Amino acid sequence: MSSHASTPSASLPSEHQATSALVALLKEEQQKLIAARIDGLPALMESKSVVVSQLTILIKGRHALLAVDGFEASERGMRDWIATRDSAQIDAEWNGLLAVSAEAKELNRVNGMLIGRHLVRTNTELNILQGKPQHTSLYGANGQSTGKGIGRGLAIG
Question: Averaged over 43-53, what is the pLDDT?
Answer without folding.
Answer: 96
